Amino acid sequence: MKKNKPFITLVGAGPGDPDLITRKGIKAIMDADVILYDALVNAELLDYAKPSCVKIYVGKRAERLSTSQDYINKLLVDYALTHGHVVRLKGGDPFVFGRGGEELDYARQFNIDTAVVPGISSSVGLTALQQIPLTYRGISESFWVITGATSDGKLSNDLLTAVHTNATVVLLMGYAKLPEIVALYQQQGRGDLPIAVIQNGSLPTERIALGSINTILEEVEQNLIAVPAILVLGEVVRKHASFQRVMQQAQLLAV
Hints:
Strand order of the largest sheet: 3-2-4-1-5
Oligomer: single chain
Helix content: 25-40%
Structural class: alpha/beta
Order of helices and strands: EHEEHEHEHEHEHEEHEH
Number of helices: 8
């Protein structure tokens, strides 16, 4: 059988629910000769692949054994050259902390044609599903999306600036740093700032903890929150339907 021309497509799979991928993303999966997929990709999406498609797990998870980015880059190019169309299937959007740009840079060194199919980032998708508006007239004029920790395991310097803003701040890959983030905001006198922590957003196993900077550590413990989770900080969190009830319960327990 004739080998297809080398081609790499980065596809955003969305935040978890398989219904939240785009039609164009599904078409790319159906056409793929090889799929390299991440840990946060819903396995149901692989059912769209043709029987001959080679499916390779290249998951990357914080604090767990994961595939190195350099190795993933090499796999992309090697399989494109030997098999044809390679789909790099990523949770969320390929260009929002998905290292999609790095993968394209590597592929271009080998003159391999590429394409990108955007996906719904958890930063906007999960907040919308929880009916937390990232912007709201008179409350938040913008939103910032920041990594919770840099490659060396430290808090992002951008967070040191974000702690002073009235904008909504969404932290991805930041749950492990929650105690440090709480301490940072408390040091700046922002202990009353609303915060939401959303785990497994868009999935049947979804959980959410709501509170203020001062109460959120207790809330995540009570709600058994774990990774993967995103953090949403800002006055817009008050718009969540359950926020006032949660805060009232916390006040009663504190009396």
